Amino acid sequence: MSALSLARRQPLIGREVELARLRAAQRSGARTLLVTGDAGIGKTMLCEHALAEMEADGALVLRGSGVPGGDVPFGVVLRAADSAPVGPSGAGHRDR
Ligand SMILES: Nc1ncnc2c1ncn2[C@@H]1O[C@H](COP(=O)(O)OP(=O)(O)OP(=O)(O)O)[C@@H](O)[C@H]1O
Ligand SMILES: [Mg+2]
């Protein structure tokens, strides 16, 4: 599910300050952001909403998640690269 469709399904309550910080970081050209917080505090929800906004504004959003219990080196980065759209239309994904 895309960040946009998830964000449409579940409205974000509050978090204006945090969203503003993520927007400002993107505008400033930040390359890495670390979002931290207690378990279940809403890190994923916040990021999904920020990403949905950025995607709607034309940003390319690549997604990679870690694998619980161990992963190959740079697994998150590899999966993010794999999620990139390919082809002249930008539609579709690589076949593996
Ligand atoms: N600002 C918010 N508005 C509405 N619902 C929220 C908000 N923040 C979190 N939630 C809801 O609370 C639950 C936990 O949020 P989320 O999964 O984003 O937390 P998390 O910090 O990423 O958790 P984890 O540490 O397990 O990764 C989800 O059901 C999410 O939809
Ligand atoms: Mg999370």
Describe the protein in words:
The radius of gyration is 15 Å and the shape is globular. It has 96 residues and is mainly alpha-helical. The chain folds into two domains: 3-59, no CATH class; 62-96, no CATH class. The chain starts with a helix and ends in a 14-residue tail after the last helix. The chain contains four helices and no strands. It has helices at residues 3-9, 16-27, 43-56, 75-82. The mean pLDDT is 86. 43% of the residues lie in helices and 0% in strands. Adenosine-5'-triphosphate (ATP) binds at residues 10, 12-15, 37, 39-45.
What bound compounds does this protein have?
adenosine-5'-triphosphate, magnesium ion
Q: Uncertain regions: pLDDT < 50 for 5+ in a row? A: none
Q: How much β-strand is present in the residues?
A: under 5%
Query: Secondary-structure element order, as H and E?
Result: HHHH
Average pLDDT score: 86
> Helix tally?
4
Number of E-type strands: 0
Helical amount among residues, as a percent range? Answer: 40-55%
Domain module tally:
2
Main sheet overview: none
Secondary-structure-derived class: mainly alpha
Radius of gyration, in Å, reads 15 Å
Our measurement of the CA-to-CA distance between the termini, rounded to an integer number of angstroms, reads 20 Å
- The dominant shape is globular
